[in-house]
Design goal:
The complex is a heterodimer of chains A (406) and B (237). By secondary structure, chain A is an alpha/beta fold. Chain A is 41% helix and 10% strand. Chain A has 17 helices and eleven strands. Chain A has a five-stranded parallel sheet, sandwiched between helices. In chain A, strands 4-8 form a two-stranded antiparallel sheet. Chain B has 237 residues and is mainly alpha-helical. In chain B, α1 packs antiparallel against α2. Classes of the chains: A alpha/beta (406), B mainly alpha (237).
């Protein structure tokens, strides 16, 4: 290796770049791996009776619609176009992989985002075909019956099921308030029991990934995310409030297809979804560069779709694909609808991102934990103090006079 | 030259040039940085479209000022140890002599020049420590600034190659954890440090003027002509 190559290797740090082209060799071996995995799945019994063809039929969607979706999802997962049939096949076989969906300390917003749309996308339909062996929000069983069922699932599919977690886990003083089931298990015990037997854990929504809203200051229940508790299991974080169904399906599909977790960033978020910054793919970016901002809600700028930075858009510090994938069948997304990004896919978003002011005007906690001040107020206070100090010294010096004259 | 005084060289041409380049960059970075943090004036909507690039210009000036700073900082860091004129690190070592000088200069300041027990012909320990704090703040601005900058290179590509964003991640990702764990904390810290730097500048200008008036050795001339004057009776050289 010559020096240039050595330097290139040293600085070509793996894990930094969102690599959308890994070369033929990589994709050939990936294809073989996927084909092997899918044939295994095809030969295994369908755990759920619902299959995608029937669901599509019921919704009046054609095979062509399904294949269009498959090619879009293939692109979203950053795979070559030739993988489209494999993606379609994986979507058909998604009901082979059992899933346990836990509902912890949250508003069930992620479940709602998937279920409550009046014209469901194929992403959402795929999630319907998924073999939910256990789902606290949706299942019919209750009490001892539900507990028994969970025990059965854990025993039957030990080491093979995906544990999807929605909601944060209280571990602080208030954790006793959050119990589940007839035995009064705390959320922490419940999660640990299920996750220990799973193949991988997928944390869905910001509460499950970083604690989210329950963990916002003063965090009365000591809420934390899944990755703070579960160790030694592959964890995939799909934050956002709610998480985009496209990203949930994409991640599960990636797992079904390859049996591996997708490439993750430093917060364990899949790079295919969280590798790019909202700001860089924003339709209002030109107005940012032009310095054309919405000054207040409903003004001339708002009518002209100006940049929302001055009313607190946090797109410049938020990594997510909503500016590309959007929500509700690609209908729209927050910035498109005229409200700035609140950074819901970043840690501590409720305290540090979700205010309708630019960062310089944000309230921050004093180091003492006391009165909240903005950075600018703090700074002006500091400068005033420095100015007063200098003025006192200057007046005292002038009054005392020069040494020689004394 | 006034009788009984002698001229002492204190700053080389390069040091003075660097001082003024840094001073100009500082003003430019503060003006544009405040705009980036909270755009405080509006783009004129009636402007021709070709002029509408206000945020981009502000960021451009801010980044150019920053890169000049960065280069200057590297040179200054080198000179700390290898300057042929004066090696500042020698005044930073907390040995008995430097500690004594530091407090002697401080006492001189708070006794309003009533007590002056040190040789003011050369750069003193107090001022060197004071400048060292400034250089640390600049280094912090450099690291947090580049961390925010690399967010814009999310694809991992740049016009000068993949090594650049990769290196920035390696060199600055730790600032996220140090400041509080999110990108926003890095921004807030960058913004807050600006105020410490402004306070530093206020004291720096005041103190140099104060020295000039009370020591009567023409200290303010150092940064213009490179020399100051010392009473021959007080000088030890």
């Amino acid at each position: 290796m010559d020096r240039r190559d050595a330097l290139a290797k040293m600085f070509g740090a793996k894990g930094v770049r969102v690599n959308t082209n890994r070369g033929d060799e990589y994709y050939d071996s990936l294809r073989k791996k996927i084909e092997k995995r899918l044939s295994e799945l095809r030969n295994s019994p369908a755990a759920s009776k619902v299959d995608i063809e029937k669901v599509l039929d019921a919704e009046g969607l054609s095979r062509r619609d399904f294949m269009k979706w498959a090619s879009a999802t293939c692109a979203m997962l950053m795979l070559p176009a030739s993988f489209t049939p494999l993606v379609a096949e994986a979507a058909e076989l998604i009901n082979r992989v059992p899933i346990v969906w836990l509902e912890l300390q949250d508003c069930a917003g992620n479940t709602e985002a998937i279920l409550r749309s009046d014209s469901p996308t194929i992403d959402e339909l795929i999630l319907e075909t998924i073999n939910f062996e256990f789902n606290e929000t949706l299942m019919v069983a209750a009490g001892h019956q539900a507990e028994e069922h969970l025990d059965e699932v854990i025993e039957k599919f030990a080491g093979n099921f995906i544990c999807v977690v929605e909601g944060s886990i209280p571990v602080g003083a208030g954790k006793e308030w959050c119990t589940i089931g007839a035995k009064g298990e705390t959320f922490e015990e419940h999660l640990l029991r299920v996750a220990q037997n799973s193949a991988a854990v997928v944390a869905v929504g910001t509460c499950a990934t970083f604690g989210g809203v329950p963990a916002a200051s003063p965090n009365p229940t000591g809420a934390v995310g899944v990755q703070d508790i579960i160790k030694g299991k592959p964890i995939i974080n799909i934050p956002a409030c709610p998480a985009n169904p496209a990203n949930i399906t994409g991640t599960i599909l990636h797992y079904v297809m390859t049996g591996q977790v997708p490439e993750l960033d430093y917060l364990n978020r899949p790079k295919f979804a969280f590798g790019y910054r909202i700001h860089d793919n924003c339709e209002r970016r030109a107005h940012f560069d032009a310095g054309e901002f919405v000054e207040e809600w409903g003004d001339e700028g708002a009518e002209n779709n100006f940049c929302l930075y001055k009313v607190g858009c946090k797109g410049p510090m938020t990594f997510n694909n909503c500016s590309i994938v959007r929500y509700n069948s690609g209908t729209n997304w927050p910035i498109g609808a005229g409200h700035g990004c609140i950074g819901c896919s970043e840690p501590d978003f409720w305290d540090k991102y979700a205010y309708e002011r630019p960062m310089a005007d944000a309230n921050i906690k004093a180091p003492t934990g006391g009165v909240e001040k903005t950075v600018d107020e703090f700074g002006l206070g500091l400068l005033t103090a420095a100015g007063i100090g200098i003025a006192i010294h200057a007046f005292a010096s002038a009054a005392a006079g020069k040494k020689e004259e004394v | 030259m006034k009788q009984g005084y002698k001229k002492v060289k204190r700053m080389t041409v390069f040091m003075r040039l660097n001082h003024w380049v840094v001073a100009i960059c500082m003003v430019a970075a503060i003006i544009t940085g405040l705009y980036i943090g909270h755009p405080y004036y509006q783009t004129l909507i009636a402007d021709p479209a070709v002029d509408k690039y206000v945020m981009a210009w502000n960021r451009w000036i801010h980044f150019i000022a920053a890169i000049i700073f960065d280069v200057s900082s590297i040179v200054i860091a080198y000179l700390y140890f290898f300057s042929r004129f004066e090696k500042p690190y020698k005044k930073l070592i907390p040995n008995a002599k430097n500690v004594k000088e530091f407090f002697d200069v401080l006492i001189n300041l708070i006794t309003l020049n009533r007590v002056k027990r040190f040789d003011s012909s050369h750069s003193d320990s107090f001022n060197t420590v004071f400048f060292f704090i400034f250089h640390l703040m600049l280094l912090w601005m450099l690291l947090t600034g580049l961390q925010m900058y690399v967010h814009g290179l999310g694809s991992g590509l740049s016009s000068i190659g993949e090594w650049w964003p990769a290196m920035l991640h390696l060199a600055t990702d730790w600032t996220i954890w140090v400041t509080g764990g999110t990108y926003m904390d890095v921004r807030m810290s960058h913004h807050e440090t600006m105020y410490y730097i402004i306070a530093w500048i206020m004291f720096h200008i005041y103190y140099q003027v104060w020295r000039t008036i009370f020591w009567q050795e023409g200290d303010i001339a150092i940064v213009f002509g490179g020399s100051k004057y010392v009473k021959e009776s007080e000088s030890k050289d």
